[in-house]
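Subgroup meeting minutes
Present: P.N., E.W., G.H.
Scribe: E.W.

1. P.N. recapped why we're keeping a running log of single-chain structure predictions: easier to compare across weeks, and new members can see raw inputs and outputs side by side.
2. G.H. added today's entry (45 aa).
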Amino acid sequence: MRAFAAAAIGLTAAVALVLTVTAIGPPQDGTSPEPLLTTVPGPKK
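Output recorded in log:
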């Protein structure tokens, strides 16, 4: 029964977080035109 209650509380918190983020909307500043580096750049040749 405790596991069921913990799962219900976690699910409720997750749904509340999703609804909050949805209500706030996307950031107003937009995104950066610079690409993110996904690897460490190697030496330039």
